[in-house]
Design brief:
Blueprint: H1 13-25, E1 38-43, H2 49-60, E2 64-69, E3 77-78, E4 91-92, H3 93-103, E5 106-110, H4 118-122, H5 125-133, E6 138-140, H6 148-165, E7 171-176, H7 186-200, E8 205-209, H8 218-221, E9 225-227, H9 230-234, E10 239-243, H10 265-270, E11 275-277, H11 290-293, H12 300-320
Parallel strand pairs: 1-2, 1-5, 3-4, 5-6, 7-8, 7-10, 8-9, 10-11
Helix pairs in contact: 1-6, 1-12, 2-12, 3-5, 6-7, 6-12
The structure holds phosphoric acid mono(formamide)ester.
């Protein structure tokens, strides 16, 4: 593995999931891999889990870690080529990425969608500019359209729960949740991309449910069954994965805040004794009821804990390829 920008960079998904589970069982087994090497974690946006779990995973592998918040700790970065730089961005990514690439052996980057221009967001300019100019492997810490480290942690979490329940091919339902703010599609896109791969290999059945107008981009929906009636979608569900996203078709807009789409214990009862998943952070009771989050049905803490192991599996594979 050179870069880890999306599922397309994964050659063997089963092996990567197993590598994460192995890291969880034996966190320090590969400490030699990162010795005398450095990872830079570059954040254009806020983070709790991604920042701490990736740092911890890197340390488990013996890597030195440097973290920087762009625009707060550093100069604002210009991404466009050929611009006359008389705006508020003091440094161009050409120099910034090249310089960070001299200090670091791997660079992780978080850069969310701006939700103003769909074409621009879906071009993944920040990731591609860093990949072009840094000259070292780039890890996606959540980009405009994807959050692959989260999706890998989600796969690990589902496999662990499958092993406990004995259900060989669970029904996994991605549901839109209400929110008053426009949020990116990245987590939902990425989860769909990875679950479609798991469905293709016979490991899950995958269903997406959302109100009309919240259709994800076709390349992410893939072969998933889309059901507009949430109650119907939840029937027989083994996993309910909740996430809010803004509209892709009416780009970046909040079309409804219908509270009936929030997940409650009635929804869990409608499912097959289902488990609730969410990448966090989650706004309690706006998106999911306290009684769900505080019940044994919730996997959200385990999911967040597994972020350490998903990051470790990816960093290990990158280090092994150096
Ligand atoms: N799930 C996730 O990426 O959390 P943070 O935004 O806190 O990193």
């Amino acid at each position: 593995m050179t870069n880890f920008l999306s599922l397309a960079d994964v050659s063997d998904l089963d092996a990567l999931i197993q590598s994460g589970r192995d890291a969880k069982a034996s966190p320090f087994a590969n400490q030699h891999l990162g010795k005398n090497k450095t990872i830079g974690l570059i954040f254009f946006n806020s983070s709790l889990r991604t920042r701490l779990s990736t740092q911890k995973a890197a340390q488990n592998l013996g890597l030195n870690v440097m973290t920087m918040n762009v625009g707060q700790d550093s100069w604002g970065l210009e991404m466009e080529e050929g611009v006359f730089m008389n705006g508020d961005k003091a440094e161009h990514v050409r120099e910034a990425a090249a310089v960070i690439g001299r200090y670091c052996d791997i660079i992780g980057i978080r850069a969310f969608a701006e939700l103003k221009d769909r074409e621009k967001d879906y071009k993944e300019q920040v990731m591609h500019q860093f990949a072009k100019y840094a000259n070292v492997p780039i890890v996606n810490l959540e980009s405009a359209t994807r959050h692959p480290l989260q999706s890998l942690a989600d796969c690990i979490t589902i496999e662990e729960a499958k092993a406990q329940s004995g259900i060989k091919r669970p029904k996994v339902v991605l549901t839109w949740l209400p929110h008053f703010k426009p949020l990116p599609q990245a987590v939902a896109n990425s989860f769909s991309e990875w679950m479609n791969a798991r469905a293709n290999s016979g490991d899950v059945d995958f269903v997406i449910t959302h109100p009309e107008g919240y259709e994800l981009a076709p390349e992410f929906v893939g072969n998933a069954k889309v059901i507009y009636n949430q109650d119907e979608a939840f029937e027989g569900a083994d996993f309910i994965y909740g996430k809010n996203w803004s509209s892709y078709t009416q780009y970046g807009q909040v079309l409804t805040q219908d509270p009936s789409w929030a997940v409650t214990m009635d929804d869990i009862r409608r499912s097959n004794n289902g488990k609730f998943m969410h990448c966090l952070p989650v706004r309690r009771n706006l998106k999911v009821a306290d009684e769900v989050l505080d019940s044994p049905h919730s996997l959200v803490i385990e999911q967040a804990a597994n972020r350490e192991w998903s990051a470790q599996a990816v960093l290990k594979e990158i280090l092994q390829g150096m």
